[in-house]
Amino acid sequence: MKLFLVISDSHGDTVSLRKIVNQYPSIQSIIHLGDYYRDAIRLKKLYPDKEYYMVPGNCDFSVSGVPNEMILEIEGLKVLITHGNRYGVKDGLGRLRSRAQREKLDVALFGHTHIPLVEKKDGLLLVNPGSAGYPRGGPSTYALLEIGNGIAEARIMEVL
């Protein structure tokens, strides 16, 4: 079983990021879904013993040579990591779901909307951790993602 901190849209709020990571010293894997990619780089310097998966978002202008998304195989499940802007997630999740079906994905992690979401439908787990640094209409949030025994589960947590 593997546990991940999933963070998105930190927008320079490294204080919140440090609070999140310090709450879970035993979690070894962090996923940052973009906006601000450089915040993930700072975390990597502060916590070099952790494993990081990072993609840039639409506000990461100076990032080059880095893939906009990645598909990971974790404990036998296929997991898409993307910011979400390329799928128009602010207008709906149809394009993201279509990609997931084509690629036979089990989990799709995305940000961009700053609104947290955990939804499981037709074998696909969609997770948007919300925004760790610039929430819209609610508190700052992140997600805990647990993958093991062929099952993926996620919960949205508030930054305390």
Tag the structure with descriptive keywords.
Purple Acid Phosphatase, chain A, domain 2; 10 strands; 160 residues; alpha/beta
Lay out the secondary structure.
Elements: E1 2-7, H1 14-23, E2 29-32, H2 37-46, E3 51-54, E4 69-74, E5 77-82, H3 94-103, E6 107-109, E7 117-121, E8 124-128, E9 141-148, E10 151-158
Order of adjacent strands in the largest pleated sheet:
3-2-1-9-10
According to CATH, the fold-level topology is Purple Acid Phosphatase, chain A, domain 2
Percent range for helical residues? 10-25%
Q: Tally the helices: what do you get?
A: 3
CATH homologous superfamily heading? Metallo-dependent phosphatases
- What's the main sheet like? 5 strands, mixed
Total domains? 1
The termini sit apart by 26 Å
Give the radius of gyration.
14 Å
Low-confidence stretches: none
CATH top level is Alpha Beta
Structural class: alpha/beta
- Overall 3D geometry? globular
Provide structural commentary:
The structure is a single chain. This protein has 160 residues and is an alpha/beta fold. The protein has a single domain (2-158), classed as Metallo-dependent phosphatases (Purple Acid Phosphatase, chain A, domain 2), CATH 3.60.21. It is built from three helices and ten strands; from the N terminus they run βαβαβββαβββββ. The strands form two sheets. Strands 3-2-1-9-10 form a five-stranded mixed sheet, with helices on one face. It starts with a strand and ends with a strand. The mean pLDDT is 97.
